[in-house]
Fold this sequence. Notes:
Order of helices and strands: HEEEHEHE
Largest sheet: 5 strands, antiparallel
Structural class: alpha+beta
Low-confidence stretches: none
Number of strands: 5
Strand order of the largest sheet: 3-2-1-5-4
Number of domains: 1
Mean pLDDT: 87
Shape: globular
Helix content: 25-40%
Amino acid sequence: MSEAERLLREALAWKREGRKVAIATVVTTWGSSPRPVGSMLVVDETGRMAGSVSGGCIEGAVVKEAKAVMEGAPPRLLDFGVTNEQAWEVGLACGGKVQVWVESLS
């Protein structure tokens, strides 16, 4: 079983338990990036996580957006890079760019 399959099964199990669940997926990278395209992070409404989209450097910001999406905000594309002031705030100083799609599991 691939990592993506494992994470999707985990997300489905959480959903079946009645939890709100969001999935964040790396959709674009450029330059030095901590995780490749297709990497996933699954989050529930309590902040429980499985997987990774960054090796930790942007995960706090992604979890914050995932919680907003679980509460009804529309899905969103997050953009982190060295030219983005927020990237420095969350620790993306690796010299690359990462885009992460965040959506609620309905």
